[in-house]
Amino acid sequence: MGPVLNGLVKLQSVENRLRAAKAKLARCRRNVIIRENQVRNLQNALEAKKEEIQLSKVQSDRLELELKSRDEQVARLRASLNAAKTNKEYAAVLTQLNTTKADNSKIETQILELLKATEADESESESIKNQIDQQKQELERTRKESEQMAAKYQAEIEEIQTEWDEVALTIPPESLDVFKRVAETYDGEALAVIEKQQGKTDVYSCGGCFMGITAESVNLLMTRDDIIRCPNCTRILVLDGTQYTAER
Ligand SMILES: [Zn+2]
C-alpha cells in the first residue's frame, strides 16, 4: 500500500465521521417531526370526538321530536279510551295505548344513553385538549433544542467536510470516483480491511462481506499502490496497518 491507498484509508475515517455527524443532524430534525405528528394525531382525535358529539346531538334531537309527537298520540289515545263505547273498543285502544307508552319509554332510554355518551365524549375531548396543550409545549421545547443542536451539528459537518475535501485532493480523481461510488452503495463503507484467519497462513477474507480473498491479492496490496476490489462485494480492499507492518 502506498500514498493512494493510505489516502483512501484516511478518507474513509473522515467519511465515517462525516456520515455520523449527518446522521445526528437528521435524528435531531426527526425528533421535531415525531412531536409534530403527535400533536397532529391528537388534533385529529379531537376533531373526531367533536363530530361524534355533533352526530349524537342530531340523533337525540330527532328522538326528542319523535317522543313529543308520540306523547301527543298518548294523550289522544287516553281521550279515545274515555270515549270508548264498547268493551271491545276499550280493549283495542288500551292495547294501542300500552304499546305506544312502551315504545316511548324505549325512546327515552335511547335519549338518555345518547346523553351519557355525549358526556363521556365531552370529558374525553377535555382530556385530549389538555394533552394537545402539553404536547405543544413539548414540541416548542424540542424545536428550540433541536435548532441549537442542528446549528452545532451543521458547523461540525462543515468542518469535517473541509477536512474531507483536503484529503480528497491528495487522491487521484479516478480512485476518488471509485471510493465515492462504493461509499454510495454501502452507506459510506467504501473500504474493507482484509482479515487474516487465525491460525492459518495465507487464508484471508474480506472484512466487509467475509468472502475469501486470494493470497495473491494480499501480496499485490503489500507491494503496490493499486486499488483492488473485493470480487464479491466490490469494496476497496486494504490491509490493516498493524497486522501487516512486520511483513512489509
Ligand atoms: Zn467483500
Task: Summarize, please.
This protein is an alpha+beta fold and 248 residues long. Strands 3-2-1-4 form a four-stranded mixed beta sheet.
Task: Explain how this protein is built.
The protein has 248 residues and is an alpha+beta fold. The chain folds into 2 domains: 3-169, Helix Hairpins; 173-244, no CATH class. Helices cover 77% and strands 6% of the residues. The chain contains 5 helices and 4 strands. The protein has helices at residues 3-83, 87-169, 173-185, 215-223, 241-244, and strands at 191-196, 204-206, 212-213, 236-239. A 4-stranded mixed sheet has the order 3-2-1-4. A hairpin with a 5-residue loop joins strand 2 and strand 3. It is rod-shaped and about 125 Å long. It starts with a helix and ends with a helix. Zinc ion (ZN) binds next to loops. Zinc ion binds at residues 192, 206, 208-209, 211, 230, 232-233, 235.
Fill in the keyword field for this structure:
Helix Hairpins, four-stranded mixed sheet, 5 helices, alpha+beta, disordered C terminus, 248 residues, binds zinc ion
CATH domain class name of the largest domain: Mainly Alpha
Total helices: the number is 5
Helix content percent band: over 70%
Mean pLDDT: 94
Beta-strand residue fraction: 5-15%
Bound small molecules, which ones? Answer: zinc ion
Major beta sheet, specifics? 4 strands, mixed
Could you spell the SSE succession in H and E letters? HHHEEEHEH
Structural class: alpha+beta
Which second-level CATH architecture of the largest domain applies? Orthogonal Bundle
